[in-house]
Amino acid sequence: MKQITPFLYAVFAISITSEAMAHDGSHPDTVAPPVRAASHAPIGVMGDHMHKTGEWMVSYRYMQGGMEGLREGNDGRDPVQALQTGGNNYRILPTSMTMKMHMWGAMYAPTDTVTLTLMGAYLDKEMSHTTYAGMAGSAIGGEFTTHSRGWGDLKVGALTHLWKEGEHALHANMTLSIPTGSITEQDTVLMPNGQQASRRMPYGMQLGSGTWDPTIGATYNGRSDAWSWGAQYLATLRPGRNDEGYNLGNRHAVTAWSAYSFEPGLSLSARLAAHTQQQISGADRQIAGPVPTADPRNYGGEQADVFLGANIAGQSGLLRNHRLGVEVGLPVYRNLNGLQLERDWSVTIGYQYSF
């Protein structure tokens, strides 16, 4: 978390400057209607709004999340407990993981009722481990860290208007994830016998799903004076298996948010998100070893998170229609399948420009 703190300060500094410039009276286009910061959902929500005919929007998001400590179901597990979880004889345990994502997006509206979407992401994952010496016991043999970096899966989709009445609107979300991300990443690991070996990394360290994954759902938006709110449901379905013999399991996610606009160009938001995901179906025979992350049963589960965020929109001059957003999330409920690292926090910082 410390490494992104300067970035957060920079974003807020730029945001405050943007607001000041937008209201300094030096621009001739002050008669233009205000750009509502809250007309977009918190920056961590995707596919939340539609555009008018001919409009484009480009975006960039930086996302980072941290995991530390092991959990089985609702309960935390210390290393000694984890070594024998479920009757297994684990000799390597993950201790922490950091995932960074750079996401680029584009939206285009050929009509008022359809907005097309495109998203691509570059992933950077790092997982630290402790290796325990020999075939039994809790004597530590050493530590090591694995890395995977590269482009993830490409996503194309469409948002389709369903209903609108006054300040209330509903649209459908449809996305297809194209398996462009690697699922055969390897790195060097420290084995219980003290030897180092190159192995295919576990499922969570791969860059893609390896399957063509449709996501369907719906998004609602509402507004009254300075308040705005919304909700979204998305289901990611994985009917087949990839070339390595598995899929990541179906995922159902729901989120709801509310935002208050102190002025048109500045809003603060609160959001609740929850999801459930199945265990991995099938297995990659080359992902093996005495480590929980190699077991397909140790993936998926249920989690709920709360988020606080801010949106800022430039109002005039060169800053008009430029947006900045930030959102920070913490878990409030976790019920995980098997033994897993628990997610402790997440941050999303984003930029959007419409034209």
Descriptive notes:
- The chain is mainly beta.
- The protein has one domain: Lipocalin (Beta Barrel), CATH 2.40.128.
- Helices cover 6% and strands 57% of the residues.
- It has helices at residues 5-22, 79-83, and strands spanning 56-73, 75-77, 92-111, 114-132, 140-151, 154-165, 168-178, 186-190, 196-200, 213-224, 227-236, 246-247, 251-263, 266-277, 281-282, 301-313, 322-354.
- The strands form three sheets. An eleven-stranded antiparallel β-barrel has the order 1-3-4-6-7-10-11-13-14-16-17. A two-stranded antiparallel sheet has the order 8-9.
- Strand 8 (186-190) and strand 9 form a beta hairpin.
- The longest helix is centred in the N-terminal third of the chain and has 18 residues, at 5-22.
- It is elongated, with a radius of gyration of 22 Å.
- The chain starts with a helix and ends with a strand.
- The model is unreliable at 4-30 (pLDDT under 50).
List keywords for this structure.
single chain, 355 residues, mainly beta, Lipocalin, 11-stranded antiparallel beta barrel, 2 helices
Which bin fits the share of residues in helices? under 10%
**How many beta-strand segments?**
17
Name of the CATH class:
Mainly Beta
Low-confidence runs of at least 5 consecutive residues: 4-30
The gross shape turns out to be: elongated
Average pLDDT taken over every residue? 92
Multimeric status of the protein:
single chain
Largest sheet: 11 strands, antiparallel, barrel
How many domains? The number is 1
First-last Cα distance: 34 Å
Strand order of the largest sheet: 1-3-4-6-7-10-11-13-14-16-17
User: Looking at this structure, what is the CATH superfamily?
Assistant: Autotransporter beta-domain
Radius of gyration over C-alpha positions, nearest whole angstrom: 22 Å
Beta-strand percent range: over 45%
Give me the CATH architecture, please. Beta Barrel
| Count of individual helical segments | 2
Helix-strand pattern: HEEHEEEEEEEEEEEEEEE
CATH topology: Lipocalin
What structural class should be given to the helix and strand makeup?
A: mainly beta
